Amino acid sequence: MLEKTNAKKARRGSKTKVRVRVVEGGQMRVRPDVLATEEPMEIRLISGGSRKTVAITMRTPGADFELAAGFLYGEGIVASCEDILKISYCVDSDLDAEQQYNIVNVELRGGRDYDPRSLERHFYTTSACGVCGKASLEQLELRGCPVIPPGPGLVAPETIYALPEKLRGAQGLFDATGGLHAAALFDKEGTLVALREDVGRHNATDKLVGWALLEGRLPLSNHVVMVSGRSSFEILQKCLTAGVPIVCAISAPSSLAVDVARQFGITLVGFLRGNRFNVYSGHERILA
């Protein structure tokens, strides 16, 4: 059984209180404000007696263990929840308490081996652009990522039209800060299953996939994922490894995101606003 330690005790704040000066109508006044917290998180992988930092990402604290699990799953380091023995915050005595909660240790079961070279490009990531030097489309093929099979059946346009409002309505942290992205999981009828928020779209998606992994819900073959903002190569890669057949975004996809969707059989929806959206790939799953 997977161990997850310190999860409740070490919960970090997702919001930071500040004071700002507001200029309105030529007058300046001071008022309190709330910002989305952004802090670095280091993912350390423990396997076979070795301990190695495999990624550093800027994220919003909260669901850190899901973020680490989702990241490692998306990169092919773990194939199931059973590969992970324990996830914990760092408790090294030479670190202050606050820094400990920005380091997550993931211990693989039975000293499971992995190729560290596949993770070298992930040493530093940002909430703005994701992992620098990301792998190309060909590397997904080399990893053996399968084409998404048909399903989950036809989805009505009206179901898709309703997703942005449902996503927005569930964004509690966005309501408080106005500065967070979200990734949401829906069933094919448009019912919200889970939602995660973060300063980075890719982190929010990792948290969502990590939740599904740790809950034993993968693959997500009968579900729809929706992200705030645009869809990128990273978003499609993570959804592909989780088996998601339909990916929707409020804004535009990148060219490489469209390439991934078309090559691996994902229905990709963009510019989802009001009663209109564009379908860039996999129109067969949409009833129209």
Automatic annotation (TrEMBL):
InterPro entries, per database record: Cytidine_deaminase-like (IPR016193), FdhD (IPR003786)
Pfam family, one: FdhD-NarQ
GO biological process: Mo-molybdopterin cofactor biosynthetic process
Active-site residues, Swiss-Prot/TrEMBL: C129 (cysteine persulfide intermediate)
SUPFAM superfamilies hit by this protein: Cytidine deaminase-like
MF-aspect GO terms: sulfur carrier activity; sulfurtransferase activity
Coiled coil spans: none
Record's function text: Required for formate dehydrogenase (FDH) activity. Acts as a sulfur carrier protein that transfers sulfur from IscS to the molybdenum cofactor prior to its insertion into FDH.
Membership in a protein family: Belongs to the FdhD family.
Name of the protein in its database record: Sulfur carrier protein FdhD
Source organism: uncultured Rubrobacteraceae bacterium
Gene name of the encoded protein: fdhD
